[in-house]
Amino acid sequence: MALCVLGADKVVEYRVITRPEHVRAVFSDSDKHTKALNNNSGYLMSELLGKCVGLISGKQWETVRSGFKGSFGRKSVSDYIPLARKHIARHFREVLGDDLLRRGLLDPAKDLKMLPFWIVAEILYGELDDDMVAELRDIVPLREGLFKRIIDGGLTRFSLSRFLPTETNTAMKTFQARWRAFNNRMYARAKESGDPKAPIMSMHEDAHKGSVNFDHVLQTLDECLFANLDVTTGAISWNIIFLAANKPYQEMLRKELALHSTTEGKTRYILDNRTLLASCVSESARLRPAAAFSVPQSAPTARVVGGYVIPAGTDIIIDAYSLNVHSALWGPDAHTYRPERFLEKTAVGQRYHYWRFGFGPRQCLGKYVADAAIRSLIVYLVENYELYLPDASADWVQKPEVWISHPQMEVGCVRRNR
C-alpha cells in the first residue's frame, strides 16, 4: 500500500507494510536501513532531534549508540529497578499524596506524566539535587512547546524559517542554550564525582574525543528524556486503563507476585519475560500501540514484497494495527484484552506479528528500561491499590493534541486494606 503525505518541502510517498511476512522481507537488516532525514518533519525537527540516535543511520548511528548501549542494555536494567521503585513510591506519596486519597481517582496520562521522566533523569545523570530538579522542571514547558510546533507543521518545516524573527526561533535558541548549560553542569559533576557509568559521562567523553559531536550528545539525551516521555507515559496509562477495565487480572497478578516476596525475588520477577505481568504489558501495547505507524526508513537494496518491488531508498512505514490486531496469529478474540495469549506463543512465533520496539537488529535502545519501569509501576499499583472504571460503559477517549496515543480518562484508584 502507498501513502502520500506532505513532508518538509515536498510530497513524500511511503510504502506501508501491513503483513508479517512482508515485515520479515524488509526489516531483517534494519541496522543497515536509513532513517528518513529529520523524520520528514523539516527544519525545526532538525534543530531539536535531527541528530539524535533514533533518527540517524549508518556509522554515525553505530558510534552514537555505542556511548549509550551499555547503560541501557539488558544487563544494566536490574540495577535500575530499585531506582524505579524508589521514584514510584515517592511519586504516589509526595506528588499525588492526599489528593489521590481524597478523590480516589487517577488520571494516568496527567498524574503519572513526569514519573518516567525522573526515573530516566536519574539513570542519565545520577541522583539530582533540588536545584537540578528545579532547572529541569523549568525546561520542560519550553521543550514541550517546541515539539508541539513541530507537530503543528506549517512554516517551521522550511529551512528559510530560521531567518525569521519568530517566537519559535527565539524559544529554540533559549532551549538549546539552557539544555547545553544543564548538561555541561551534569558532566562536570559526574567527572568530579568519578562516576564512569553515567551516560552523561561516556557521551561527553566521546564528544571531547571527536568521535561524535555535541549536537549528537545533546539531542540523544533529549530523545531519552523528553522525546520518549510521551511514549512511556502512553504505555503506562493504557496498562492502567486495561487493568481497571479487567479487574480479575489485578488479583491474578497479586497471586503471581506473592510467589516473589523478597526484594531480589521481585527484581527477578520484573525482569522475567514469561510472566503474566510481562504479558499484561505486551497485551496493552498490542491493543494500543504507541503510534499508528512506525518511523519512516528505507532499505539499502530493493525488496520484493507481495510480488511488488520496493526500490532501494524508498521510505517504508509499518501499519501497527494491521500487525498487532488484524494478524491472523491473534485469533478470533484479537480485539479482546487477554494477556495469556503471550504465554501461549513463543517470542520467535510472535516476532513479525507484533510491532512495539521495532524489528530486526535495530530496535529501540530504551526498551529494557521502559519495560522495567512499566512493570515496576504495575507491581506497585496491584500491591497497594484497587483499580476500576467509574463508568464501565463510557467511551475510551484519547487526547487529541498528543502525537502518541494517550487516554483522556480517569480510573478509580483506592488504597487496598491489607
UniProtKB/TrEMBL annotation:
Q: Which organism is it from?
A: Xylaria grammica
Name it.
Cytochrome P450 monooxygenase
Looking up PROSITE patterns in the UniProt record yields: CYTOCHROME_P450 (PS00086)
GO term, biological process aspect, one: secondary metabolite biosynthetic process
Recorded family membership: Belongs to the cytochrome P450 family.
A Pfam family: p450
Q: Which InterPro entries match?
A: Cyt_P450 (IPR001128), Cyt_P450_CS (IPR017972), Cyt_P450_E_grp-I (IPR002401), Cyt_P450_sf (IPR036396), Cytochrome_P450_monoxygenase (IPR050121)
Its needed co-factors are: heme
Example GO molecular function? monooxygenase activity
Which residues does heme bind?
364
Keywords from UniProt, A to Z, are: Heme, Iron, Metal-binding, Monooxygenase, Oxidoreductase
Residues crossing the lipid bilayer are none
| Classification via SUPFAM superfamilies | Cytochrome P450
